[in-house]
Amino acid sequence: MTESGTPTSTLAKSGAAWAIIPAGGTGSRFSTQSNKLLTLLAGIPVLVRSVRAVLSAKCIQQVVLVCHPDLQSEYQAVLAQWLPEASILYVAGGATRRDSVYQGLLSVPAEVPVVAVHDAARPLISTPVIEQAVHTVVEGAAGALVAVPIQDTVKQVEPDSLMIQGTLDRRLLWRAQTPQCFDRALLLQAHQQVASDIPVTDDVQLMELAGLGPVVAIPGDERNLKITTLTDLQMAEALLAAMGPVLL
After folding, report:
1. pLDDT tens for residues 208-226?
2. pTM to 2 decimal places
3. Would you state the torsion angle of the CA atoms of residues 181, 74, 49, 97, taken in this order, to the nearest 10 degrees?
């Protein structure tokens, strides 16, 4: 049940899940000359592809785009041009990704039971994966993490000497992707419960530190890459070409 007393499953199945898309940075590792989210990927801006992909899932009712105030008008103009019918709420981001997600979370109404946090630089996420992650939370999990099993042999290395310390069991290791979906109230609790000076890399780690769960792994797709460098953009373009005209 939500705070309003409405059954969570009814709200979520009627399309009441919201997506928070942190888009706070321009991507310094991508290029010092351009904003990676506005870079064209097969003729369409990366940000537009990411937002369009999230909204393609019927379970997502609303997108909350969290960005730097200086970028909001530009992002708003681009998204209005490409996705004029899209339901997008713009929220000012914070100093860190965690801060930005929290600001986005505060804008989600209490009656919305499920939130999906998705990287703005992951434009190739598939609709079925989003829907499976949301559905997992609707069915009772505290969270659902889209991830892929690690295929490579993984070594533990001493950070200073770079001496090999051991070989990790890759059967236990998955690479986290997004979206990461959560019971909205529990994610809010995690953000407020874990001290702000504790470093975290994603919201699942916040849930871990807060002792909230279970968070379930949802098998993702290697094509759901995060565009961080120019090489990533080239890989995404090749993937789109291989996937055919539907996604182009």
Report:
1. 999 999 999 999 999 999 9
2. 0.89
3. -30
